[in-house]
Specification:
The complex is a heterodimer of chains A (about 220) and B (about 240).
Chain A lengths: L9 H33 L4 H15 L3 H11 L9 H26 L3 H9 L4 H31 L11 H12 L2 H30 L7
Helix pairs in contact in A: 1-4, 1-7, 2-4, 3-4, 4-6, 5-6, 6-8, 7-8
Chain B lengths: L3 E10 L2 E11 L4 E5 L6 H8 L7 E6 L2 E2 L7 H7 E4 L11 H11 L5 H14 L15 H13 L5 E5 L7 H16 L3 E5 L3 H7 L2 E6 L2 E6 L1 H6 L4 H10 L1
Parallel strand pairs in B: 3-8, 3-9, 6-7, 7-8
Antiparallel strand pairs in B: 1-2, 1-4, 4-5, 9-10
Classes of the chains: A mainly alpha (about 220), B alpha/beta (about 240).
Subcellular location (chain A): Cell inner membrane; Cell membrane
Main location (chain A): membrane
GO molecular function (chain A): transmembrane transporter activity
Amino acid sequence: MNFLPLWRYQNQLIDGAIVTLELTVIAALAGLLIGVAGAVALNGRITPLRWLVRGYIELFRNTPSLIQIFIVFFVLPNFGLKLPAFEAAAVALSLYFGAYSVEIIRAGLDSVPKNQIEAGQCLGLSGWQVFRHILLPPALRNAYPAVTSQFVLLLLGTSLASQVAADELFHVAGFIESRTYRSFEVYAVICVVYFAMAMSFKALFAIIGLAAFRWPRRR
Amino acid sequence: MALVEIRDVHKTFGKVEVLKGVSLDVEEGEIVTIIGRSGSGKSTLLRCINALETVDSGEIRVEGERVHARMPDLKAFRQRVGIVFQAFNLFPHLKVERNITLAPLLTGRIDKARARALAEDVLTRVGLADKIDAWPEQLSGGQQQRVAIARCLAMAPHLMLFDEVTSALDPELVGEVLKVMEAMAKQGMTMILVTHEMGFARNVADRIVFMHQGRVWEQGPPAKLFANPETPELASFIASAK
C-alpha cells in the first residue's frame, strides 16, 4: 500500500470534490423546487397535471439514475438539446432528486392538519398566503429529516456522472487510477472524502434545522 | 335590517340533509346561543355563516351582503366575521404575537410599526399580555383559546362566531374563556355561539335558539326557554343537559 504517488494529484482531487459539491447543491435546489411545485400539483384539482406528475415520479423512481443521466446526455441531443456532461448530469440528477422530493414534501404538506388551512382562510388570507405562511413551514419541518437523508443519497449518487465524463470526484479518481495504477489507494481516499462530505452535511443540516425550526413540537 | 339574515337554508352532506330549512335573524349587538344535540346542524349553520360551507338553497346575508364561497370579496368578508374553533387552531410555528399579527399584516390592515401594539392591545383584552412572546405549545388549552379569540379581535370583526370553543378544554379552564367572551358581550360585540355551556347560555345570551333535526325548533329569551320549554324535545334536551 502506497499513498505517496497520489500526492501530486491533490489539486485534481480538490477540484473533483468541488464539482461533486456543485452538482449536489444544484440538483438539490432544483429538485426541491420541483418537489414543492410537484407536491402542490399532486394535491391540486387539475387531473391531467396530477397524472403527469404521478407519471414523472414513477418513471424517475423506478429506473436507474445512471440510465437517466445517459438519456439526457446521449439521447436528448437527437432532439436538439445538446448539453455538456456537467449540465446533463445536473439536469438528470435534479429530475431524480425532484421525483423523491415531490413525495417527501407532499407527505409533509399532508401532515399539517386541515383545520390550519381553515383557520388561515377565516382570517381573510388568500390561498397563496395560507400556503406560504401557514402550510409550508410546518410541512417543511416534517419533511426535513427525509429531505436531508435523500440529500446524502444524492451526494453519493453524483458519482454516476463520472460515466458521462463529468469532472466530479469519482471521475477524477478513475483518471488518477489510470495514471498511477494505485486502485485501492485512490478509491480509499475518495471514499474518505465522500464520507467526510456526507458527515459535514449532516452536521450542517442539524444546525440549520435547529435554527429554522425553533417552535416546540406538538405534545 | 338584521346583521345576519338566514332564510330557509338547506344543506346536505352526501345523503344526509343536515339543515332542513333554517331561518334566523341576528340583530347587531345581540348574543345568540345555539343549543341542540350533536348532529342537529348547529355547527354546520355556523360554518355556513362564514362561507366555510356553501348552502344548497336559501340564502344567508351578513350586513346585507349575500354569503357564499364564491363571493367576490370573500377575503374581506372573512375579516369582518371572526370565527373561533373548538380546536383553537393556533399556528404552532408562530409565536403568540405573530399568530395575532400575521393576518392584519398580510391583508394590509396595519403596518409593521403598529403590529406589536395591536397584539398587546388584543392580548390585554383576553388577559394574556404577558404571553406575547410565548409559543402556542407553551400555553394551556384555555390560554390558547383566548389567544385564538385575540387573533380574531385583531381583525376588528363586526360579528364573532364561536363553535363549541370550550368543548376541548379541561373543566377548570372553561371559566377563563367564558369570562373573556362575557366581557366581549358586554362591550357590544355581536356574537353567535354554538355551545354546550348551559350556564353561559342562560346568563349571557340575549336569545337561545334550540336546533333539532336540522331545524330551528324553538327560540326565545333564556329565562323563558329554560323555564317553560314549549316542545317536548327541548324539555328533554334541557333535562339531559343538566
